[in-house]
Write a structure and sequence with these properties.
mainly alpha; binds protoporphyrin IX containing FE
Length: 204
């Protein structure tokens, strides 16, 4: 990995490529998630946490195995979401996890930063979702809000610090990072299909 590289004028830098090349996948996933509704319910919130835990669990395990990732993301240890999702659900693990065939496992640091872009970006919608949920009279009930309110006032700074790490990806590896971010959104969509159909009481 070379020092921070600056793209020539007019060339989309990696950050913009990630946002633009994943925007439709993000919108599609967001539109499918019950929590995305204007007036979500407490059960939609619980389902959202269970759905995410089922994917974040296995993919964060895979991220821990990527050699060289910690040197690129020194504060990686503060970014794990699985323990927060487990705490919010008072669960010691997911009741259902995404099958190995679905989980996109990064093979190198460039791909791992693509995966992290999606997992870290998922915290940005948290503030919007919390605002909607707080209007529910019974919120948060028996659930926690550590995942949606992760980083608290530091959310913006944590996101900017993460975006800075993208500067370490050499231009020749940008396709791997963008491809990995897209593969992660696609895997989340596939997991949602499986998750929806394997709900207790749902007969497919
Ligand atoms: C119903 C659910 C969701 C809502 C309402 C939502 C909403 C948002 C909002 C408002 C932003 C932009 C925030 C900003 O620019 O400050 C955002 C960004 C983002 N969200 Fe979501 N989101 C949802 C679900 C997800 C999920 C499940 C993931 C992935 C696990 C995800 C990944 C991302 C990423 C990667 C970004 C960063 C985009 C960028 O600026 O490059 N979102 N989301």
């Amino acid at each position: 990995m070379s020092p921070i590289s600056v793209p020539s004028p007019g060339e989309r830098d990696l950050r913009n490529r990630l946002r633009e090349d994943t925007r439709t996948l993000h919108q599609t996933l967001e539109s499918r998630l019950p929590l995305g509704a204007e007036t979500p319910s407490l059960s939609a919130y619980e389902d959202h946490l269970r759905f995410l835990l089922g994917y974040f669990g296995p993919v964060e395990e895979a991220l821990r195995d990527v050699q060289g990732l910690r040197s690129l993301v020194p504060d990686l240890g503060w970014r794990w979401k699985t323990p927060l999702l487990e705490e919010d659900l008072s669960a010691d693990r997911a009741d259902r996890s995404a099958p190995d065939s679905i989980v996109h496992r990064p093979a190198n640091p460039a791909q791992a930063l693509g995966v992290l872009y999606v997992l870290e970006g998922s915290t940005l919608g948290g503030r919007v979702l919390l605002k909607r949920l707080r209007s529910l009279p019974d919120f948060p009930g028996h659930l926690g809000i550590r995942f949606l309110s992760v980083y608290g006032d530091e959310a913006g700074a944590m996101w900017s610090r993460f975006l800075e790490t993208l500067g370490h990806v050499e231009e020749k590896d940008w396709d791997e990072t963008v491809g990995s971010a897209r593969a992660t959104f696609q895997a989340l969509g596939d997991w949602y299909d499986v998750w929806e159909n394997s709900r207790p009481g749902v007969t497919s």
